[in-house]
Amino acid sequence: MHVSTPSTDITLVDTMIVGATIITMNSDRHVIRDGSIAIQGESIVAVGKRSDLDEAYEAKTIVDGRRFVVTPGFTDAHIHITGDPLTRGVRRGAPGMDFSETLMQWVIPLFKAHTPQDEYVSAQVAGLRMLHGGVTSFIEAGTVQHLDEVVHGLQNVGIRSRVGAWVEGRSFNPSPSDSAAIDKAIETLEKEINCYGKSPDARIVAWPLLIGHSVNPDEVWLAAKRLADDNDVGISAHMSPYASDPAWFLENTGKRPIEHLADLGVLGENVSLTHVVYLNQSEVDILAETGTNVIFCPYAALIGAFGVASNGLFPEMARAGINIMLGTDGVPVDIMNSARLMSGIFKDARIDEALFPATETLEMITVNGAKGMGLGQRIGAIEAGRKADIVCHDTDRPQWFPEFDLIEQLLETASGDGVHSVWVDGERVIENYRSTKIDEEALRAESRETGKAVVDRAGLTVHHPWPVL
Ligand SMILES: [Zn+2]
């Protein structure tokens, strides 16, 4: 972490954040008080004590960092950026409906009612909300219908993204595989990989994103894995939030889901499975052996009544060395709150206060997220050579004073509403709580109109539990 230019020459860089407290997340987990960061182009070129950097660098733009705790940008490893953001509060179905009825009668109709323009607006709302909460990179959950418009929207707000189109091959309602649907799914995967940047340095890259569960036949999984391996990208898919996925796989393949995917040869370090609540120990062992990543969405699990406290094997996964990332699943909760919930759920479930301390949950949304995105050496930490994905947390906000153990405070008391400034690829996309790239008022007005139109088009009536006068 020391400055690598000992000569008396002064190097001119684009930006310096000066005098901040920096939680670097480097391999030694250094926290630097009165520290500075030098940014040139897309990258961090130096980080260290202010006194050292002052002697070696000058900057075109100097940011006074004295009121900031600075962290790497966070990763939300599972979020639906369409469907959810414009239809908040509509989602709960009707009284007495179970998960599958809610899914078929409410959730999917709302997603499908989105036009290309709706998804363009929705992607901007989701991207903006993430940036305001300190999230600089995310993996989409696999439910985008209009990928071109979504990519355009994400480019507008400036967030790092891994996105892909909705592919199935077999419908949610119990149904046999359909060869035309399988061909269409594989064609969609191939097309999107060829359309968008494959370089890990590109801010937006298309990945094969599978719905998972029981709706992707083996042929689709195999095509996705071949494309991911050949193009050096990742795969993400939902699996086993409820016992229904293992039940389906046992009935139709004779094996549990993870066993079946392992036999197909589609697991590995470029694969991330989301939820994975209903696993047995042998499935955990397979994930560890294959280096497969997992993504857990704590708030979605709690409000979805997954039964994660009773059934989740996340402490066992951590012990086995599995890379655990966190996601929000699109529900309106920021990633720092997700980390806090992750820390709490298993402490209570196992009556063990030592489980998942703040240090580990901060790793889940930084270095672990970077690793699962295939960007383990590029993002997730503040050190020379990494991309400048940086978040300034404002210690003038009440949740921050007085300051003691910063890691504990970051995860236990602070929240995304203290995010003052954000850089992605060295570009300051949020400054003083405002986007530098889009007109937030105009987007707000457009999203209100668009959201109402989507709900009307889906033919749904919003239920209010209490009389609305
Ligand atoms: Zn999801």
CATH class of the largest domain: Alpha Beta
User: Oligomeric status of the shown chains?
Assistant: single chain
Segments where pLDDT lies below 50 for 5+ residues? 1-6
Largest sheet: 9 strands, mixed
The helix count comes to 17
First-to-last CA distance: 61 Å
Give the overall average pLDDT.
93
Q: Percent range for helical residues?
A: 25-40%
The CATH architecture of the largest domain = Alpha-Beta Barrel
Number of strands: 18
**What is the CATH homologous superfamily assignment of the largest domain?**
Metal-dependent hydrolases
How many discrete structural domains? Answer: 2
Describe the structure.
- This protein is an alpha/beta fold and 469 residues long.
- The protein folds into 2 domains: 11-72 and 381-434, Urease, subunit C, domain 1, CATH 2.30.40.10; 74-372, Metal-dependent hydrolases (TIM Barrel), CATH 3.20.20.
- Helix content is 38%, strand content 22%.
- It contains 17 helices and 18 strands.
- It has helices at residues 50-56, 99-112, 116-132, 147-157, 179-195, 218-231, 244-253, 257-264, 281-290, 298-303, 308-311, 314-319, 335-350, 358-364, 367-372, 406-412, 440-458; strands spanning 11-23, 31-40, 43-49, 57-64, 68-72, 74-79, 135-140, 160-163, 204-206, 209-212, 235-239, 271-275, 293-296, 324-326, 390-394, 419-424, 427-431, 434-435.
- The strands form 3 sheets. Strands 1, 2, 3, 4, 5, 15, 16, 17 and 18 form a 9-stranded mixed β-sheet that branches. A 5-stranded parallel β-sheet has the order 10-11-12-13-14. The chain has a 4-stranded parallel β-sheet with strand order 6-7-8-9.
- The radius of gyration is 22 Å and the shape is globular.
- Residues 1-6 have low confidence and may be disordered.
